[in-house]
Amino acid sequence: MTDSNRMVGMLSRREIMALAGGAALSGIAGLPAFAQEAAKKGGVLKVAAPANPSSLDPATGGAGSDHSLLWTMYDTLVEWEYDTLKPKPGLAKWSFPNPTTMVLDINKGIKFHDGTDLDAEAVKFNLERNRKDPRSNVKADLTSVDTVEVTGPLQVTLKLKNPDTALPAILSDRAGMMVSPTNIKALGDDTNRKPVGAGPWKFVSWADNASLVVTRHENYWRPGRPYLDGIEFAIIPELATALRSVVAGENEMTFSLPARLKPVIDRAKNLQVVTAPTLYCIQLYFNTTRKPLDNVKVRQAINFALDREAFVKATMGGLGEPAFMTLPSSHWAFDKSVATLYPHDPAKAKKLLAEAGFKDGVELSIGGYNDQDSVRRSEVLQAQLGEAGIRLKFTRGTIAEISAQFFATEKKFDLLLSAWTGRPDPSMTYALGFDKGAYYNAGREADPELVKLIQQSRESEDLTERAKVFAKIQRFIMENALSAPIAFQYALDALSKKVLGYKPNLLGKPKFENIHLG
Amino acid sequence: MSQSRKRNIIVRRLLQAIPVIVLSTFIVFGLLKLVPGDVAVTLAGDNASDARIAEIRHIYGLDRPFLVQYGSWLWKAVHGDLSNSLVSSEAVLSSIARCLPHTMLIVVLAMLLALVIGIPLGIAAASRPGSWTDGLVMTIASLGVAIPNFWLGMLLVALFALDLNWLPATGATPISEDFWEAIRHAILPACALAAGGVAEVARQLRSSLVEILSSQQVRTLHAKGLPPSSILWRHGLKNVSVNLLTVISLLFNRMLAATVVVEAVFAIPGMGNLIVNGAIHRDFPVVQGVVFIMVLIVVALNLLTDVLYSILDPRIS
Fold first, then answer.
1. Residue ranges of A 128-187 with Cβ closer than 8 A to chain B
2. Chain B: residue nearest A438 by CA?
């Protein structure tokens, strides 16, 4: 119950009741076991999903919104704890006999939906495909893997080019979703439209931008699971409409709603609202090789000028958490001492600007998106930084267009107001956003010390050891002000009262495995 | 008019349609290539590097010259293959086969509503120009034109779906699956779409009818002693039928376009939904396919209108 306790100050009594209710029914937080047994089997859940999947083949898809749909059909080699994202065994248990060897021991007797055995050969087939298929989008995640060997009927050994303890987390993502080799061999790329995995539900139908239907996998390997006979997703990208469909009782659940819709959920009498912290971090990306942001003092000034608490109140209706680094306070690698580096201090910001040679303030070009919520954020940001004499000149456009202009070859704008959606392992976040040459590091340059630290963060398997390295990385990034994290957005999900057992996770991408209908 | 002349008109119109189709798909293709961003970014996924995006571009043939890409699309389209979506790889033709009925149902229903409500209003207003009935009808008509259909749609949902619970708030049922359920789902979106149509039909009908009714011909009819009702119904309406037909065909085309917004408000998986999602990801086969089919529909409608013109008014050939 630690999550809900932390949020008490911001939530109404009704929401806390809903949270407590959800927790009690899912049998978490040390409640007696009978609460768990009360879960009833059967029933079909109707869900309004916010986006059409980019593909139902985990290897070739690309959108971050796919996961919730993919997890219904695909189980992953590794899974994670909902609250902290600590990796835990999934289809397989893992171990590192030495820093450059990872052994996966697959659970016995697991079968894909088509009856194919999920054994060492199947896992090797998947990993090789993910590593080598020209259309695979997860190649980059597996670059540390040198060879994949079958060392037993249910054992696969990965030889690594360099130590990489981010691999368990990576194998909880797309790269660890196991697809039936029989299906791939028979259908090739068409597996995208006729997916076969080993998840709790199997594929029935998918109509683009309209619906996705899955039904119970009778031979699912976890006894007694899943509770639901099936799930019918209605794909409704217009989130206000998705919520209306739940209010009207046409769907029973919708997720990833913006905070501005919370009053609508509150007004509806038949709904429960679920909010929870996520890794989704609204932040300012800097191009640190462009004047004037090549000057650390200007970057620090921006960080001091931000009033993060006010930002959460003004743009998220309080449904968020101020961000002082790219990890939220509930994450296992969060470091408290870094969170105090940048209190809101416009005077200090002005002083730093003056020291950098901008006594009369500075004008910066910034990219932003043109949807309703992004525009609102940009206005609050303009006001906050304006107080410290930092004038923002916004160029707005679609996400694809503006991010490409900032991150890809054009290198437009000094900074970008965007978000980081989070990754299962923090080292992925730092490698993708701050490493030398990384795409989300618009300047492409990185201090050798930081590069070394990022490597180091993947060397030890022990989470306490890793947390220490991450603390160093976070401190380095924030002291050098390589970005300005602003706020973590809470997940906001609306559920009918008859949906029980749902528990949000830190990744902010719902899993349906614990849900049952009352 | 002889049968063969009528056939000639149809053949000529059909031949004229070919350049229209080619040109419109070419322009849309060009526009999709001109706007920044491309489908390779979507295909490459969330953390793609520049090199990976270039690689994807090559795998999907997106690095071929513009004209080659358009040519290969057109060649397939002429042979009845509208290609597959680049993103989800669903065949565009089957997406359209699924989406088109939803859109057509709403548009046809909205058209019927616009006529059933708009024509009586227009007649009522025109038969006593300047009266309070006329004023009321014209006020309603102005409102109908002024109210954005997405906003009206939300109001309708709030009242009829969420408060009264009479009709569904979102979604659609295929008409082939359950006729009445399909109609139930289509009523609110059709109402939202029809509001502007009602207004337009009423206004246009009123102004043409007022013009006819104040003409010398009608004065003569009055002088001959014909009853006013007979003048209105037999002479007045017959004379404005060509104008009304023009309004209807323009309105139909406009409603097809307006469904883009209405479908988003009501979460209807129709053509508007399809083209919006296609455009967002620069998934050009989808956008091209929808445009292709829409152009075909519009061309067919215009052809039908032309034929009807010649039936209603023998002077037109």
1. 134-135, 137, 139-140
2. B49
Nearest Cα of chain A lies from the Cα of B134 at a distance, in angstroms, of: 38
Which class for A468: exposed (0-12), middle (13-18), buried (19 or more C-beta within 10 A)? Answer: middle
Q: Which of A52, A139, A404 shows the shortest C-beta gap to B37?
A: A404
Q: What is the 3 state secondary structure string of chain B? A: CCHHHHHHHHHHHHHHHHHHHHHHHHHHHHHHHHCCCCHHHHHHCCCCCHHHHHHHHHHCCCCCCHHHHHHHHHHHHHCCCCCECCCCCCEHHHHHHHHHHHHHHHHHHHHHHHHHHHHHHHHHHHHCCCCHHHHHHHHHHHHHHHCCHHHHHHHHHHHHHHHCCCCCCCCCCCCCCCHHHHHHHHHHHHHHHHHHHHHHHHHHHHHHHHHHHCCHHHHHHHHHCCCHHHHHHHHHHHHHHHHHHHHHHHHHHHHHHHHHHHHHHHCCCCHHHHHHHHHHCCCHHHHHHHHHHHHHHHHHHHHHHHHHHHHHCCCCC
Q: What is the pLDDT, as a whole number, of residue A352? A: 94
- Chain-chain contact of A404 with B50 (C-beta, under 8 angstroms): no
> Where do we find the tokens 């708009």?
B118
Under 8 Å CB-to-CB from B7, ≥6 apart: which residues?
A: none
**pLDDT tens digits, B156-180:** 888 888 888 888 888 888 888 888 8
- Tell me, yes or no, if B287 comes closer than 8 A to chain A by beta carbon: no
Q: A235 and B47: CB-CB below 8 Å?
A: no
* DSSP conformation letters of A282-319: EEEEE-TTSTTTTSHHHHHHHHHH--HHHHHHHHHTT-
Query: Does the beta-carbon distance from A209 to B277 stay under 8 Å?
Result: yes
Pick from B42, B55, B89, B290 the residue to mutate for testing the A interface (most A CBs within 10 Å). Answer: B89
Residues A30-70 have pLDDT tens digits of 333 444 446 788 899 999 999 888 889 999 887 788 999 99
The verdict on A359 touching B (C-beta cutoff 8 Å) is no
Alpha-carbon distance of B227 to A326, in angstroms, equals: 83
